[in-house]
Amino acid sequence: MLRLRDVVQRSVPPRNSPLNSGLWQRAGYKTQLGPQVTEQPGLKRFSTAEATVQTGPGHPCRMREKSLTMASLSPQVKAVEYAVRGPIVIRAGDIEKRLQQGGKESFTEVIKANIGDAHAMGQQPITFLRQVVALCCYPELLQSPSFPEDAKQRAQRILQGCGGQSLGSYSASQGVECIRQHVAEFITERDQGVPSDWNNIYLTTGASDGIMSILKLLVSGEGSGRTGVLIPIPQYPLYSAALSELDAVHIHYYLDEDSCWALDIEELQRAYLSAKQLCTPRALCIINPGNPTGQVQSKKCIEEVLHFAYEENLFVMADEVYQDNVYSADCHFHSFKKVLYEMGPEYFNNVELVSFHSTSKGYTGECGFRGGYMEVLNMDPRVKEQLVKLLSVRLCPPVPGQAAMDVIVNPPREHEPSYAQFIKEKSSVLDVLAQKARLTEQILNSVPGIKCNPVQGAMYAFPRIFIPPRAIQEAKARSMAPDMLYCLKLLEETGICVVPGSGFGQREGTYHFRMTILPSPEKLTVLLGKLKEFHLRFLEKYSREGAPSSSLHREEGAQSSNLHREEGAQSSSLHREEGAH
């Protein structure tokens, strides 16, 4: 077989050939056999491994049409939107670069409160987790006296489960076996003895990978037989983006903002019955604790949801990545699996349930490792075979991320040398988050025109904001959502980057934004102070000329009353594409 170099050398005469010296000059070839050709201004180069051809005014080159254009691009890809890294965030990146290059703004830094990236916001890693992963990555450190024995024991166990005892090898598509066993043990302990079978555990590339894999199994059919998936509004945009990519039908059920974003079973039934006229509802997604809303669902609420899923034969997807992030003293995390078990064998042996967890949230905040797991219950054995096949296409989740997940589910025990430091660090992270949750709620609720529910859990606040009619009119004139205009002006005037509520979904006539509570207490205090000042300026700028503040509050009350006004008139909360399905 000829190599590329052989082809080039055989098809192009030597540069020093008298017969072809003019050819070399006219074509502008450059190879390792002769002197370098000086590139002239205005000339383009098209390179292979051995030769560079120059074209310019004297050497016209016809550029053919692209095979992939916006016209030929998949319509499902074009339908995908992901507000957490959307236009506001792109604009924030541009401003940040300009500041780094010496540009001048009325602020000195961009505060990115748009995404739940704990370490980017200054949170320090949990020492024990990093020790174990470091030992796995560089086993020579196992001989170092600087590492505690319990960290070494865990690293050795993980390495024994890896091919060639190396973190650089592929694992099984479902993940390293001993880590899956540790996950099952963790779930059994968390749920106070409810059994977990490690064969039902699948390690994933963050929770997102698992969610996408399950949705791929669920989505099928055409027309009224097309799969519909119930998702909460507001919701984490992963769900709407994934459903758009898979061309599934979005079925929106609205969380009750006036009841601290509780899930109302009557609203769930309304959405389901409306959707049945246009598609085939097959799955129900719940995020608990909530993102972006920060609520923690009660056990009674979870029981009602599971009973509803049982009655309507719905596949349940429980996103529980914030299970360690509960701050309100009167709230507790209840896993869907444990509640299902306590409802009795009829439910526990029949309801199809997948729950998700991740290294990215909780008290570790290890987003970059992309570790996670899902536990799959009551799935048809033949479908499970298809799931393994689907997972095998991406070979395996990142093995360092699997190691990080192992530490989360198998932390130091009370009798081990790392326990005291581990508990101190874990408690410190969660205590500070609880403090910041209260601080955020208190300051936001002190601002006229902003109402924030208690941040019971997770890492975000999702306050409702009053936007004056003149600002709404300006937003419409600029073809953007009113809360997008608000967030854009907030960014450009203060450097604070938050995400408009329209990117998560909200009831018509209401406006919100999502912000993380992850910045340090000092920076968060500054952020909230700047936000308060901006909001008051915003209200003043867009209020009617000379209108008294009491008039402004009447407008605010009228806007807020829209929260439930359209509820009775809604025949469906499907996404706008429903007619096409």
User: Which bin fits the share of residues in helices?
Assistant: 40-55%
Number of helices: 20
Mean pLDDT: 84
Determine the N-to-C terminus distance.
51 Å
Instruction: Count every beta strand, where a strand is a DSSP E run of 2 or more residues.
Output: 16
Multimerization state: single chain
Given helix and strand content, the structural type is alpha/beta
State which percent range the strand residues make up: 5-15%
Structural summary, described in words:
The chain contains 20 helices and 16 strands. α16 (419-445) runs parallel beside α19 (521-542). The strands form five sheets. A seven-stranded mixed β-sheet has the order 4-10-9-8-7-5-6, with helices on both faces. A three-stranded antiparallel β-sheet has the order 12-16-15. Strands 1-2 form a two-stranded antiparallel ribbon. The protein has helices at residues 4-11, 21-27, 75-79, 87-100, 127-137, 149-160, 177-190, 206-218, 237-245, 265-275, 299-312, 336-342, 345-348, 381-393, 399-409, 419-445, 469-477, 482-494, 521-542, 549-565; strands at residues 44-47, 52-55, 111-112, 201-204, 227-233, 249-254, 280-287, 315-319, 353-358, 372-377, 450-451, 460-461, 464-465, 496-497, 499-500, 513-516. The radius of gyration is 28 Å and the shape is globular. With 581 residues, the chain is of the alpha/beta class. Helices cover 41% and strands 11% of the residues.
